[in-house]
Amino acid sequence: MKIHTGTNRIKKFYDNISRVAFVLAIAVLIQALVLPEKANGADTSNLTVIIYSSASISLNWEDNLTGEKYYVVEKKVDSGTFQTYSSPPPNSKTAYDSAVSAGHTYTYRVWVMNSEGRRYLYTPELSFRTDEVAKPTSLTLTPVSYNQIDISWGYADNKAYNTIIERRTESGTEWIKLASIGIGQNTYSDKSISSGTKYYYRVRACSGSTESVKSAAYPEEGKTAYSYLYKPTDFYGIALSGYSIKLNWTDNSSETAFIIERKSPKSGEFEEIAVVPQNNNSYIDSDAELEAGVTYQYRIRAVSGTTNSEYSDTISVTNTYLKAPGILSSSCTDGKNIQLAWEDLTDNETGFEVWRKTGSNTVWELYETMGRNATSFTDQNISLQDTYTYKVRAKINDNSVYSDFTNVTTVWSVTIAAPSDLTYEVVGAAQVNLHWKDSSMSEAGYNVERKQGLSGKWYTIGYLEEDVVSYIDKWVNTTDVYFYRIKVYDKSNSINYSNEIAVSLKTPEAPTNLQANPISSSEIKLTWEDNSFNETEFVIEAMQFYSFREIGRVSANTTTFTQQNLVSDVTVTYRVSAVTGSNRSSTSNEVVASAKKYITYSDVSSVKWAETAISNLASRGIFDTKAGSKFYPSQNITMGEYCAIIIRSLDLGMVPAGRYADVTSKHKYYKEIMSAAKLGIISPDKDNRLYPDKAASREQAGLMLLLAMKAKGTPFPDEDGGLLKQFADYRTISANTADKIADVCAAGILSGRIINGEVYLQLSGKVTRAEAAVIAYKAINLYDKNM
């Protein structure tokens, strides 16, 4: 019985195990058939909802699958069971539901039916209430600067939600999430923008750590704002006279115009005074209301269409003329100090300002202030192997009176002087001979470096000993452009580079658009367009009868030539070609011209020394005197007519503007007198008088001509008063003007008068009309020589 009983127990045990195994198998089968199975890998998506109102929503997911048959959207209300709501087709990303209402909790999930007919759970479940978020009701955009737009928004009934900010550009169509803002904060500053660009913004409320529940966007189409343009910088002003102020600035934007505003002590408010066209960087305020010695405030901004820049810094300018310092030079020979030097050309400044930029920095800073009569400055705060840029201006303390700036000079902080004046000549079909000047006394040698094309790399092609100043490159072809520079080095490994030059043996492109302009009875001026980058000179040819002959050559990049000593009314044909080494371009178009008609007067035979000058200027239309009538060469010339002669001769005419006690618009030479005053060639006295009908003295004529030539940009010799000792009356010359008169004499403009065998300047003497013509004629020739 015991054995029988044990057998039954064993049988019963195995029966129980069989029942458990069966149950487990059934459970596994049920799980496989009923429980959701996820898609493989990344083939799933988050589920988000956009609530448009308490009765309308959209569900959104990503379509990360390929080959699916359709999606299945299931919906559960409160604690109910999931029911199939819709079956969107393949590639769907959205499902809409308008069968919802406030006060309920809705739960959604999305399934996908794959190509094998198996159903996978594609998204996690998402639960929410339709009154969980509400879209914003206001959006305000405020441009602050070129790189910032401030954004603020609000909700109805002062409710608070987490907020999503979305942005797109004018050219884009896709909205990008810009930022997520926490609950209770309703402002944001967008500092990731570009200058002068139109942006679209919209905002929406959201909830949940994953921002899966969102409101509709406000506004759906977005709201626009332009970021500001870059504002003008380096804004400053100087008085050109007691009645005009010149403003200068740096243009930093793609504007269509600049708006300039001025505030005077009388008005107390900024008023618009000018709209300046795009790409300009200066403006002369010559308003008749300007008063000498009065301080005015200015500001400027750029505009383009509906957007603009911020205002520049406000500057104060006192309407008192202060002459700018002379040429600014810089040098660095030890790598530790940079020496600046300039000329002090005024005697009423109280000091000078030194401005500096370092390396690639584009912002000028006021670096140092110097005292009265200073002419030099040593900058000891420099780093080796860096670049520094300087400019200087004079000032009068506490009065906002400043001169214009000097020229800008840039210097390397190096310890060895660079080779200078690197040039070349073509010495064969494929050879270039380089030449330079040895500027250092301590070099250990030179390296000749070359690159092919603008984007090429520099390679050393020659290693030279000290004091060598030439090198022949024998490996040059006629198709590439080569760049050369010379590197000098010393035993301490200090280096410096020469200027760079471009060399090409390609046949240069021919000049085009050759034009001939008769400018007098003996001169024709030619102009053309330079279409080549590698010419070494231009050859000018002329034909009067049957064949062309060469009449002159000009250096590379020159586009003008004046033929002189022509016979009036004789027809000449011209053409121009470019030259590089032995290669010569084809010729330009041909032009035909003749000098202007020779003009003379009935009474100039008594002044043979002035006859050529008078005739030349007459053919240019400088005089109002009719041809063939009397010129009255010995008559004293008035200040007004002298202004007219030099303004017309040097083509310095400007738009007339201004007001003086003794010059009205009815004056014969009103336009020329106003131009001369605006350029600082003449200045009024304390009673605002110019005395246009008073006879001009030789001193006045010389000084006015000097100022006119400087306004034209023509360099003059730099002499001191010692040059004037050659004249018998030099002791009578004022010390205040001696140096300037010496410059005029050194240029050959003003010469002496022989009296009893001695040469006198007679600066107090009056200028005749014949002398005025000779002075203007010499000035024209000096200008043409320096062109």
UniProtKB/TrEMBL annotation:
Keywords: Repeat. Residues 597-655, 656-719, 724-787 form the SLH domain. This is Titin. Residues 43-133, 135-227, 231-323, 324-420, 510-598 form the Fibronectin type-III domain. It comes from Ruminiclostridium sufflavum DSM 19573. The lineage of its organism: Bacteria, Bacillati, Bacillota, Clostridia, Eubacteriales. PANTHER family: FIBRONECTIN TYPE-III DOMAIN-CONTAINING PROTEIN, TENASCIN. The keyword Repeat applies. Gene3D superfamilies: Immunoglobulins (2.60.40.10). The keyword Repeat applies. Pfam families: SLH.
